[in-house]
């Protein structure tokens, strides 16, 4: 028996069709919102954050003032917009952004625990009929990621899961900082969001 160290690889992130988004916004109003976001990022958009913001703004037609007479204030700062989404637990919009990971050198215990998180997830696991188990591919939306990171880094969680989800939390904080802005890593290794049950 030899010791292995689980590894996590980010395989996929949201990709946008900006022409489709522009066409929709030209039809309903709000083109300036997209152009402002593209200018702020110099065309290097964060697909996950942009699709979540787009979905959230679609709920209230809040891309710019005047599109919805019931909206008196439109937040223009993206980080503050997401802080409000998280505070108000408007978590359904987080389900628009999906990420895929390959998790390698993990145990069967780990994969059995992981597949318990069915909602908002997809799994592809090596067949023990044909190969020795070392790897699983997991896809999850941002809402599911927030939930599973909190659960599986908690002090009572199994050690291997805590290790892997610490890595996933760090990856997601770098990948989509606005969607995970309220997470804090405690000294015990747990990642705890300020806004729970989003």
Identify the notable features of this structure and list them briefly:
alpha+beta
Write the layout of secondary structure elements.
Blueprint: E1 7-12, H1 18-28, H2 31-40, H3 47-60, H4 78-87, E2 98-104, H5 108-114, E3 121-125, E4 135-141, H6 142-152, H7 159-175, E5 183-185, E6 191-193
Antiparallel strand pairs: 1-2, 2-4, 3-4, 5-6
Helix pairs in contact: 6-7
- The strands making up the biggest β-sheet line up spatially as 1-2-4-3
Average of the residue pLDDT scores: 93
Number of strands: 6
Assembly annotation: single chain
The H/E string reads: EHHHHEHEEHHEE
Structural class: alpha+beta
Helix content: 40-55%
Low-confidence stretches: none
Cα shape: elongated
How would you describe this protein?
There is one protein chain. The protein is α+β, with helices and mostly antiparallel strands and 198 residues long. The strands form 2 sheets. Strands 1-2-4-3 form a 4-stranded antiparallel β-sheet. A two-stranded antiparallel ribbon has the order 5-6. A hairpin with a 5-residue loop joins strand 5 and strand 6. Helix 6 packs antiparallel against helix 7. The relative contact order is 0.16. The mean pLDDT is 93.
